[in-house]
Amino acid sequence: MAVPLVELSRDRIDCTALAERVRSDACGAVVTFAGVVRELSDDDRPVNGLSYEAYPAMALDEMRKIAHEAQAKFGPCEIAIVHRFGDLAIGETSVAIVVAAPHRAAAFDACEYAIDELKARVPIWKKEHYLDGSATWRENAKR
Which of 11, 20, 16 shows the shortest CA–CA distance to 92? Predict the structure, then answer.
């Protein structure tokens, strides 16, 4: 297994490029999760964008731990975890997790594990910006 790719970035996330980085001839499945900025908040307020802030050293360390845990739990797999920070517009990808594994079940399970653990443990904070000009820091959704 290769060392997992974990990044925090101000740049747009290219899920296709991430899939190519983790894919190998040993892997029969590649699963991609992309979290995308949507136009409505969980309470149905119109949103015009999000801002993310992170504690980079701690966030990257925890992301690495999560990737290694997923590899240990779900067998041989290659993993990329990338999260944006800064200001994002509607439709932009805020987080991507790509897992390549020999079989689809392990790839799906590892991908789900990684996003759930990232949301629960990684010090990244989200602020929703609403069309009415207000903004609110939001907790990560558990599912």
Answer: 11
Domains observed in the chain: 5-138 (3.90.1170.40)
pLDDT in tens, the chain (143 residues): 678 999 999 999 999 999 999 999 999 999 999 999 999 999 999 999 999 999 999 999 999 999 999 999 998 999 999 999 999 999 999 999 999 999 999 999 999 999 999 999 999 999 999 999 999 999 876 65
Cβ neighbours of 126 (radius 10 Å):
18
CA dihedral 59, 23, 32, 47 (to 10 degrees): 60
